[in-house]
Amino acid sequence: SACRLCIMRKLPSVLARTLTSGTSASPGLPDLSEVRSKLRDIVGASTNWRDHVQAMQERKALHTLLAKRQEDLPPRRMKDSYLEVILPLGSQPEIREKYLNVHNSVRFGRILEDLDSLGVLICYTHTKQEMQQRSPLSIVTALVDKINLCQKIIYPDCDIKFTGNVSWVGKTSMEVKMHMLQLHDGDYSPVLDATFVMVARDPENKRPAFVNPLIPESPEEKEIFKQGELNKLKRIEFSTASLLKMAPTAEERTIVHDIFLNTLDTRQEGEGTVSFRSRKLPPNSVWMEDAKLKGLEICHPEERNIFNRIFGGFLMRKAFELGWATACSYGGSRPFIVSVDDIMFQKPVEVGSLLLLSGQVCYTEKNYIQIRVHSEVYNATTREHHTTNIFHFTFISENEVPQVVPKTYGGKYPINSMLYLDGKRHFTAVMKEI
User: Fold this and answer.
1) Which has fewest Cβ within 10 Å: 25, 80, 136, 382?
2) Strand 354-365 vs strand 292-298: parallel, antiparallel, or unpaired?
3) What is the Cα–Cα distance from 39 to 45, expressed in whole angstroms?
């Protein structure tokens, strides 16, 4: 496989902007397949699908290694979890094909997979106990808080460097900050910054488990830790104000009402009345129900993680690719990813599931397209549907795009106005960030 891992014990990733440049990874470092093999060793996972039940049974014995209180665990520093990974696309051309798209740039979905693996590894590095070969913790991705890109194109023939470390710790959760840089003219320049939230659970992945506390050392690290606290509060605030829980604000209600008035067909009907159902599409606009794509994935054992559930990075890649296709078909030109935010992993996806994906254009502004991808699993035996993830992607198109318009005030599509407002909220938050 592609990536090579180098565990750096010198400085946290926030200070790693001054990374020494180089054209390739040092010889002898393990690649990502070996890293994943190491992850399997850490949790005692089986490489054979038919043996996975027994492997998971053996993990039960690790319950005795769990800390009863967080205070019983040794505190860690940010630099203790610092990892650096090289993806040698420039120096090892044979690995490029897996990462290549038709536009001769790097597939962003593959980068999402790599970030997910790196985030888990960083957390296991933070929680590693020197005397224990196997970790009693099941560490899983809970949330992709945000990924902001500062480069539109990722080149397929230049080495990539990932850096990252644990930046904030709660009782059972860890925030991980990761950065991606690409080699140009002998120097690594920033491509993206990512913030993930991981949670630790018991060996059977049933209950929360305590993780090592984090001690920030320098003023810079204290500021990063403080930002982690603020990020947590922002997430709570955003969730509390969700349109699923609270009515739209007065300003939002005005926006929806203005759209409604703008789409009313004012031609006289019958005795001079205007029907609520008689609607017309404004110029250069598209109804929301005409701006969606759907997809289906069969979840094979090949895509499982070390806990024999479907790998979160695979889910992100598939959702991104559907989101990109939705933006591409809507805008009629090549879209570029600007930001990924607020991906909540609500429910694990079991191997053998039918994964249904639905991509929806929720909001547009000039060249920007806000996409929401809804992911659910369908159990063919019970005929039940369960939401597993909601993904939010912000794209910028090469050309200005039509305005997406919800049908509102009752009828068959009242939910579209709520999706529109939710998309606008996410878009506004992203624009503030970047």
Assistant:
1) 382
2) antiparallel
3) 8
Cα distance between residue 395 and residue 86, in whole Å: 27
DSSP secondary structure of 172-194: SEEEEEEEEEEEETTEEEEEEEE
Q: Under a CB-based contact definition with an 8 Å cutoff, are residues 269 and 338 in contact?
A: no
Pairing verdict, β 83-87 and 187-201: unpaired
CATH topology of domain 32-241: Thiol Ester Dehydrase; Chain A (3.10.129)
Rounded distance, CA 165 to CA 178, Å? 7
CB neighbour class for 238 (10 Å; exposed up to 12, middle 13-18, buried from 19): middle
The pTM score is 0.85
Cα–Cα nearest to 336, from 381, 397, 382, 287: 397
Per the CB < 8 A criterion, the answer to whether 327 and 361 are in contact is: yes
The β-bridge partners of 194 are 147, 178
Q: Quick one: 87 exposed, middle or buried, by C-beta within 10 A (0-12, 13-18, 19+)?
A: buried
Phi and psi based region of residue 352 (left: phi greater than 0; alpha: psi -120 to 50; beta: remaining):
left
Q: What is the DSSP letter of 61?
A: G
Alpha-carbon gap, residue 368 to 147, rounded angstroms = 16
Q: What angle do CA 66, 69, 73 make, to 5 degrees?
A: 70
CATH assignment, 250-265+284-432: 3.10.129.10
What is the CB neighbour count within 10 angstroms for residue 75? 12
CA dihedral over 65, 71, 77, 83, signed as positive or negative: positive
Task: Name the residue among 364, 314, 426, 100 with its Cα closest to residue 322.
Answer: 314
d(CA 6, CA 183): 17
List pLDDT tens digits, range 385-432.
999 999 999 999 999 999 999 886 554 446 888 899 999 999 998 998
Spell out the domain ranges in the chain.
Answer: 32-241, 250-265+284-432
Q: What is the pLDDT of residues 125-142, one digit of tens each?
A: 999 988 787 889 999 999
